[in-house]
Specification:
The structure is a single chain. It contains 9 helices and 3 strands. With 279 residues, the chain is an all-alpha fold. It has a domain at 59-192. The protein has a 3-stranded antiparallel beta sheet with strand order 1-2-3, with no helix packed on it. A hairpin with a 2-residue loop joins strand 2 (42-44) and strand 3. Helix 1 (2-18) runs parallel beside helix 9, helix 3 (78-102) runs antiparallel to helix 4 and helix 5 packs antiparallel against helix 6 (156-172). The longest helix has 49 residues, at 176-224. The chain is elongated and about 80 Å long. The chain starts with a helix and ends in a 15-residue tail after the last helix.
Length: 279
């Protein structure tokens, strides 16, 4: 009986430590596990296993925006620029897929790499194609970008602001190449800030996990040393009350610490503190 209670307490604390704050459980019929298209990480019911998948890396999108800006500044018309961007990133997509196939990586790592680097390249190709089609039909590239970000919202924070830049250029006559270069710099700075914040919080996260398991470790060590704390905690009314209170406080500590760490690291793409508008 004592082992059952201890095991239940350990599993409860483990669940509190693994499930992130604000997590929404899946509805009936939702499939799991899935691979996050922005980061390539496996998730189970939306819970990422490994590095946080809250926001996808935008290295590929920054490079694509700089490339698009350079094409426009070189004198290419928008149709040519979007077509060249699509062709260039389609070649990168094929190269990335080939590198993953011949790299000799384990199957799970190949899946993550394919949905990470190749997934970002595929997203750029799809967005460029949507913008080109919208431009050729007279709707305007911003309409195509809007359609793409609604169909594939993994990198919404990047495409949404690109659409704003296109509309700003169309309404004011501002050079789009310059706006795209400034937008790429802003996205790159936000991503560097997010990565620096993850590195800073890595120590507190590890400390929180270690301290969360110290009470369980203390019980196990005391039991091995012959102090027999399980008999006291499960054999008396006072002990059972202390065990229940300790388990509740343990779970509350895990949830509260995770909420604090998540709030400290909650710099969402495009909506972080002091995010300046693209001039």
């Amino acid at each position: 009986m004592s082992l059952v209670i201890l095991t239940a307490s350990l599993l409860t604390g483990l669940a509190c430590g693994l499930v992130p704050a604000g997590h929404q459980w899946p509805r009936a019929g939702q499939s799991a596990p899935v691979i996050n298209p922005a980061s390539g990480l496996r998730t189970w019911w939306g819970v990422p296993w490994g590095r946080s998948a809250a926001a996808g890396d935008v290295d590929a999108h920054v490079a694509a925006m700089r490339q698009m800006g350079a094409l426009l500044r070189s004198g290419r018309n928008p149709a040519e620029a979007w077509a060249l961007l699509e062709t260039s990133w389609a070649e990168r997509l094929a190269s990335a897929a080939a590198d993953v196939r011949v790299g000799g990586y384990p199957r799970r790592r190949r899946e993550g790499m394919a949905t990470g680097a190749a997934g970002a390249a595929r997203d750029v190709v799809d967005a460029a194609r949507a913008a080109l089609i919208a431009h050729e039909t007279g709707a305007g590239p911003s309409v195509g970008i809007d359609r793409h970000l609604h169909a594939a919202p993994a990198y919404r924070h990047a495409w949404e602001r690109l659409s704003w830049c296109i509309r700003l250029s169309e309404s004011t006559g501002a050079p789009l190449g310059h706006l795209l270069n400034r937008l790429a710099g802003q996205l790159e700075a936000e991503q560097d800030r997010r990565r620096a914040l993850d590195a800073i919080l890595a120590g507190p996260r590890m400390t929180q996990k270690l301290l969360a398991w110290l009470p369980a470790l203390g019980l196990v060590l005391a039991q091995l040393m012959g102090a027999d704390p399980l008999t006291l905690l499960t054999g008396t009314t006072t002990g059972r009350v202390c065990l229940a209170a300790g388990a509740a406080l343990w779970c509350a500590n895990a949830v509260w610490c995770r909420r604090l760490l998540n709030s400290a690291g909650a710099v969402r793409p495009g909506r972080g503190p002091r995010t300046a508008a693209v001039p």
